[in-house]
Amino acid sequence: MKRHILFPLALALAASTIMFGTSACSSKTSTASEEDGPAIAMTVHVKDGEFDPRDVDIEAGGTVMWINDDVASHDLQFLVPNKLYSGVIKPGRAWIHTFTSAGTYDYYCDFHNTMKGSVVVRPAP
Description:
Blueprint: H1 2-21, E1 29-30, E2 40-47, E3 50-52, E4 55-59, E5 62-68, E6 77-78, E7 84-85, E8 94-99, E9 103-108, E10 116-122
Parallel strand pairs: 2-5, 4-10
Antiparallel strand pairs: 1-8, 2-3, 5-8, 6-7, 6-9, 9-10
């Protein structure tokens, strides 16, 4: 009898955490997939202390998703042209960002400052 009550409660709690837990955060860190938000122009995998690919090229308005496939937490620190910070991206999580302005966005992992990459954003046609 207890099993019949506890399972639906656990299922409801898990569902509400998924539905409301990530939407209440001010950070864009999420386990987003391409179906959950804007179309992903590029995906960067974070694994073995590297960004793969390290450098990406997209059009303005394009969205990049970083997926942490590593065992360690990482973050992305952008300094130029605008300061931008991803927050901590834990293993198995992702962060997405849409780049609206053309320019070169160099970034690095604040925890592992030898991890570096860039996003080159070309003007939209």
